[in-house]
Design brief:
- It is a single chain.
- By secondary structure, the chain is an all-alpha fold.
- The protein has 4 helices and no strands.
- The chain has one domain.
- Helix content is 77%, strand content 0%.
Length: 81
Amino acid sequence: MQETLTLFLDALSQALPDADRKDLTRGCYFTIALMVSAFSGAGRIDGLVQGQLDDEALDAAYRPLLTYTTAGLLSLWRARA
């Protein structure tokens, strides 16, 4: 897992050369935490959103999760620029 994260952070650092490595690492941590929460199947989403989202509909969650986490990583980079 650590090797994969390092490769991913290296690629992000190349794509965003002015970004602070610590910010990118935090962004990856937040992204992983969101993915684990969203796709754990623990039924937590149903309890929190009272039926407005279906934690079984994983396909429907991919695009919003990707959009949200991409915007978050970019905002960390822009905050330093």
